[in-house]
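Renewal narrative, Specific Aim 1. Our central claim is that a sequence can be written position by position from structural information alone. The example that follows is taken directly from our test logs and has not been curated for this report. It begins with the structure tokens describing the chain, in the order in which they were read.
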């Protein structure tokens, strides 16, 4: 793959076109109405239409500076400090026996979450699904919120891979009350699945990064334990919850038997999640990790990025939250847009586009034409996520783009 190329104006246009065709074929471009092109791997190419020449503004590994990518906090690229930490990491073979940097990360996470043990895995989907598999057996059921990631965005892997059933509860603004659960534990009866586990998510992705009220979490988990079922937390963005609420991650994790955290979201690492719990639980999770194909060899290179992220990228999440607040304020100022819920707690902003303006897909296309990448979350809703690769100036630009698009009367935008 070509990593970089020089300013193109010095070269014949045809040659440049050839070179760009090559890049396109390697990366698969998505064109936008005004001629901007982005590639799935974060590369970008612009077209200078008046001059008739192609123009590229690509910094190797960092994407293009005129694109503001607010689709997710997973899009960040490793910083130079993080890359250095990765290159310098001592590694072993974490499947045969041990990788020293992975071991260091696992110990650090277990300490941080005040659990006996932890295990490193490639993704949050895997840590969640392995937690479900270890807590439950074939034919068991778990309780969860109808909007949670485990239920909506993991392909029903709990059924596909572990033979489990899910029983959902619709939270009110993503918060479920004890009264909604009390009748849900199935009686011990040959006709029924066995209720084994309660799963919660903090912060709540589909809930626009909402932080679960801590007292509510404590109450639900206490009830679950008294009822003889286990508890699992999908804490993909637990550090966001901690920084925004001022409550230590250890305290947020305490009510749960197992906790999953991700390094590749707001923390800015390229890959990786950890699952924490009792020694016995993690020993079983290690067996399941191999079964699920998640055993990694010199994974210390990735664990080093996670360690670096925990050292350097936790406190700064407050900046992302302030950026999200500014975007939310812009949304709230527009009569054509309405914020999901009444506030933004952390780094995710979800808003509804009034159908008289158009669809979420049209809104996202219009944003893209102004250099802002967003995600159409449903037919009428759009998601923006702030992260460490978005600067304060870019948030100003994104706010400006939101304002100018939302204020256009329906049908007036050239891109629509
Ligand atoms: C709340 C939540 N849980 C789990 C995941 C899955 O993480 P991964 O993409 O690493 O599998 C995500 C991904 O965005 C998420 O938002």
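The sequence written for that structure reads:
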């Amino acid at each position: 793959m070509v990593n970089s190329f020089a300013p193109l104006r010095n070269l014949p246009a045809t040659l440049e076109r050839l070179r760009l065709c090559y890049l396109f074929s390697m990366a698969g471009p998505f064109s936008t109405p005004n001629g901007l092109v982005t590639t799935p791997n974060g590369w970008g190419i612009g077209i200078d239409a008046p001059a008739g020449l192609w123009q590229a503004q690509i910094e190797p590994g960092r994407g293009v500076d005129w694109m503001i990518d607010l689709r997710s906090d997973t899009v960040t690229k490793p910083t130079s400090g993080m890359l250095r930490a990765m290159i310098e990491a001592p590694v072993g073979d974490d499947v045969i026996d041990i990788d020293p940097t992975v071991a260091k990360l696992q110990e650090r996470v277990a300490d941080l979450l005040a659990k006996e043990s932890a295990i490193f895995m490639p993704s949050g989907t895997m840590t969640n699904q392995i937690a479900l598999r270890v807590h439950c057996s074939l034919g068991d059921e778990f309780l969860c919120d109808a909007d949670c990631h485990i239920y909506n965005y993991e392909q029903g892997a709990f059924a596909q891979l572990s033979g489990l059933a899910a029983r959902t509860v619709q939270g009110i603004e993503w918060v479920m009350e004890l009264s909604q659960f009390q009748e849900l534990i199935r009686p011990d009866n040959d006709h029924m699945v066995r209720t084994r586990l309660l799963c919660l998510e903090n912060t709540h992705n589909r809930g626009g990064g909402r932080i679960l009220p801590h007292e509510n979490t404590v109450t639900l988990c206490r009830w679950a334990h008294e009822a003889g079922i286990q508890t699992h937390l999908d804490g993909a963005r637990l550090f966001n919850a901690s920084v925004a609420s001022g409550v230590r991650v250890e305290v947020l994790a305490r009510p749960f038997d197992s906790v999953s955290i991700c390094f590749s979201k707001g923390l800015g690492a390229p890959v990786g999640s950890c699952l924490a719990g009792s020694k016995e639980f993690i020993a079983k999770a290690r067996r399941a990790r191999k079964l699920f194909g998640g055993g990694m060899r010199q994974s210390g290179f990735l664990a080093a990025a996670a360690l670096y992220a925990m050292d350097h990228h936790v406190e700064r999440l407050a900046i992302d939250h302030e950026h999200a607040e500014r975007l939310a304020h812009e949304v709230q100022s527009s009569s054509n847009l309405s914020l999901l819920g009444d506030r933004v707690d952390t780094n995710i902003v979800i808003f509804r586009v009034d159908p008289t303006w158009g669809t979420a897909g049209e809104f996202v296309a219009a944003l893209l034409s102004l250099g802002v990448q967003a995600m159409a979350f449903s037919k009428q809703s759009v998601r923006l996520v702030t992260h460490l690769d978005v600067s304060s100036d870019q948030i100003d630009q994104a706010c400006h783009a939101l304002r100018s698009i939302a204020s256009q009367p329906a049908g007036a935008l050239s891109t629509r």
